[in-house]
From TrEMBL:
UniProt xrefs under PANTHER family: HTH-TYPE TRANSCRIPTIONAL REGULATOR BETI, HTH-TYPE TRANSCRIPTIONAL REGULATOR RUTR
Location of the HTH tetR-type domain: 11-71
Keyword set, alphabetical order: DNA-binding, Transcription, Transcription regulation
Source organism phylogeny: Bacteria, Pseudomonadati, Pseudomonadota, Alphaproteobacteria, Hyphomicrobiales
InterPro entries hit by this protein: Homeodomain-like_sf, HTH-type_TetR-like_transc_reg, HTH_TetR, MT1864/Rv1816-like_C, Tet_transcr_reg_TetR-rel_C_sf
Name assigned to this protein: Transcriptional regulator, TetR family
Residue ranges the UniProt entry marks as DNA-binding: 34-53
Organism of provenance: Kaistia soli DSM 19436
SUPFAM superfamilies xref list: Homeodomain-like, Tetracyclin repressor-like, C-terminal domain
Pfam family, one: TetR_N
Length: 207
């Protein structure tokens, strides 16, 4: 039996829908996320979700925003160490801990694509920028040789490398090209890149 809309407030329904989407996404990834599946899980008709979110994409973007916030919080906790030299390693471990604890939701974060002509909301972009800003600030003490604009681009490059390793690991394909565990490769990349210093000015687009 379906619940009636007045059984829960709009805020309650929104929270229920996000929790349901998160549970489905954690178990099945992006392929399992449909309006009907989410509605069935919370005991409401599919049309109810369209009173809460414009469409399925809006629901997934909101869910992904919460995933980003959990990742940001995990990295911030790792960065809280007073040992500047140990901070890069702590951040790498925190990133891989997060991927290993929520592999499907981490994948949804990067697999979901909005329809052509649709942009991510400003709050989501701000969340991404805040995540990068936090990493830049955390690594600043060990990247003093890097000019500030290049430092940010270097952090983005390191994140891109960690993302690539994680994607291969989550898909089960990393073992085809390396016998090393993913976090060991992640530590290697971050340590070597920081140690190498600003060999090129990344902020200028030089390659």
């Amino acid at each position: 039996m379906l619940a009636r809309r007045n059984d829960h407030s709009p805020d309650d329904l929104r929270r229920m829908a996000l929790d349901a989407a998160r549970a489905i996404g954690a178990a099945e990834g992006l392929r399992g996320l449909t309006v009907r599946r989410v509605a069935e899980r919370i005991g409401y008709a599919p049309g109810t979700l369209y009173n809460l979110f414009d469409n399925l994409d809006a629901l997934i973007v909101t869910m992904n925003g919460e995933t980003l916030e959990r990742l940001r919080a995990a990295l911030a906790m790792a960065a809280a160490t007073d040992d500047d030299a140990a901070r890069p390693s702590a951040l790498v471990d925190a990133y891989f801990d997060f991927v290993e604890s929520e592999p499907q939701l981490w994948s949804v974060l990067f697999e979901h694509r909005l329809p052509e002509g649709t942009s991510l909301p400003d709050w989501y972009r701000d969340g991404l920028a805040g995540l990068v800003d936090g990493a830049v600030a955390a690594l600043a003490p060990v990247m003093k040789a890097w000019p500030e604009p290049s430092r940010r681009e270097a952090v983005v490059a390191m994140w891109g490398a960690l993302h690539g390793i994680s994607t291969l690991a989550v898909s089960g394909k990393l073992g085809l090209i390396s016998t090393n565990p993913p976090r060991r490769l992640g530590h290697l990349i971050v340590e070597r890149m920081i140690a190498a210093g600003p060999m090129v000015d990344l902020s200028s687009g030089e390659s």
